[in-house]
Amino acid sequence: MRKAIVIGGGIGGLAAAAALVQRGWQVEVLERAPEFTEVGAGISVWPNALRALDVLGLGDPVRERAVLSGQAGIKDSDGRWLSRMDTAEVESRFGSVVMLHRAELLDVLRAAVPPEALRSGVEVHQARPDGVVLHSDGESRADLVVGADDIRSAVRTSAWSSSPAPRYAGYTAWRMITEPIEIGDSGESWGRGERFGYAALPDGRVYCFAVANAPEAGPRTGLAELRRRFASWHAPIPSLLDATREESVLHHDLYEMPPLRSYVKGRIALVGDAAHAMTPNLGQGACQALEDAVVLAETAPDLASYDQKRRPRTQRIAALSRRMGMVAQWSSAPAVALRNTALRLAPKSAAFRSLEPVLNWRG
User: Fold this and answer.
1) I want to staple 69 with a disulfide (CB 3.0 to 4.6 A). Which of 75, 97, 203, 268 is the partner?
2) Is residue 125 part of a domain?
């Protein structure tokens, strides 16, 4: 039986492990953290990612733990619509969009991997193209090594010695989950160099995120900074901040990976953020990792085929997300006025044309 070592026990790593197990591989998952878990944040699972989960037989369990996204779009900081997107129409064109806690998605994926394959508290030091992995518990060997260990990937930095370093996007982000609170719609609001977004979770809580232009490696801040920036924005944003506990606020700078020349080397394949970490402007980071997992399992051990199928697509989506973030983060008053006017005047068909190559993936 062929053996795969998956390094990283997040969404991409567990999805890859589940997909390989289904294809008859023996799998070992090495996770640096003391347990397989996810941070307190929500996640949108777009139609392309739900199709990937359906391939794994996990789409329905995820849908059971999720809530369908409702009316969404983009507003300005005063609450005036700039662009609306009826998710019923998105569903009719592409399929459902669902929202759930990241930990719920991880639970579904973890349950699809044999418990004996999961090894937590193991830190990987080096992965070699010949399939040898050196880690804190010794050494492992495999026919396939999957680097799924996030943007600061030890696999990538050890096997791709000349790979570029992650690049700061120019803005920082806060993520949080409120106490249960009722909201009408969901979506994002764009200001001048700042954004705030929110979406309901199945249990009545609301997942929120905020983004602001900031120097790299600035101080870690919480609710006080969020209130300073967003308390005067339209409803329900002030109420959402009031319903948030300080300890639930996560604050991180946003980074992306410059394009790699290849996602594979010898017996190693990179998936998810280790290969193509992108800004979250399209909500496609984890979605693309799920696609990666399915395609890798379908093509392995032919890793050249995996690279050919995944690298062009993921790098196009990363570039699209980068461009969207640049426009969304404009801060000069004239540029913001021009952007907002353009969004109001743009036909609905333009948004669907831009989404089509992202959401129409079918494996």
Assistant:
1) 97
2) yes
- Secondary structure of 17-42 in the HEC alphabet? HHHHHHCCCEEEEEECCCCCCCCCCE
Angle at CA 289, nearest 5°, toward 284 and 294?
A: 125
Q: What 3-state class would DSSP assign to 5?
A: strand
Domain that holds residue 303: 3-69+98-167+257-337
pLDDT of 281 higher than 90? yes
Element (H, E) at 328: helix 303-328
Where residue 150 sits, what CATH number does that domain have?
3.50.50.60
**Contact in structure between 13 and 7 (CB atoms under 8 Å):** yes
Strands (E) across the chain are located at 3-7, 26-31, 42-45, 67-68, 72-76, 81-85, 98-101, 118-120, 124-127, 132-135, 138-141, 144-147, 167-177, 187-190, 194-200, 206-213, 250-256, 264-265, 268-270
Query: What percent of the chain clears pLDDT 70, i.e. is strictly above it?
Result: 99
Residue matched to tokens 């200001």 = 191
**Which two tokens mark 256?**
């992306």
Q: How does the average pLDDT of the chain come out, rounded?
A: 96
**Assigned token pair, 88:** 């019923």
- Domain count for the chain: 1
Q: How high is the pLDDT of residue 70?
A: 67
**Neighbour tally for 249: CB within 10 Å:** 22
Listed residue (55, 63, 48, 45) closest to 22, CA to CA: 55
Average confidence (pLDDT) over 28-46: 92
